[in-house]
Design a protein that fits this description.
Elements (H helix, E strand, L loop, with lengths): L4 E7 L2 E2 L2 E4 L6 H8 L8 H11 L4 E5 L11 H7 L6 E5 L4 E5 L9 E3 L15
Parallel strand pairs: 1-5
Antiparallel strand pairs: 1-2, 1-3, 3-4, 5-6, 6-7
Helix pairs in contact: 1-2
Amino acid sequence: MLDRALIHFTLGSQISVGILLLEDGFYVPGMLQAAAAFFDPTSPGRCVSGFCAVHHKLVADIVPPPDADWPQWGFLQWDHYFGWNSGAYLVDLPHMRVRQYHPVSVHRDGRPVQCDLSRTPRILHVVK
């Protein structure tokens, strides 16, 4: 069975291009932790660049962002958009939370993924 994954970084209704991993998709939470110091909660694109800089050997491709109505998507839409094995991961930048849409998950609204993104530089955090 293939172990692919797709990662998008989100900020409100903004969403980054997707980072496609053709292997090691199961390890995405750990990869996000390793790259956390290179994430910018105010710029989805910089987060993509930071992730790629840290894991350049694992990134197979960069894919276009989904349709503009993606914030309303549930499991079926994410599965249709990607639907591969380890699924799609959405990183909510202001809150540094990760949600996974796994093609075999019973969590149809996605499920929270446990990973520590606290190493993001404080100076970059959104001030509320």
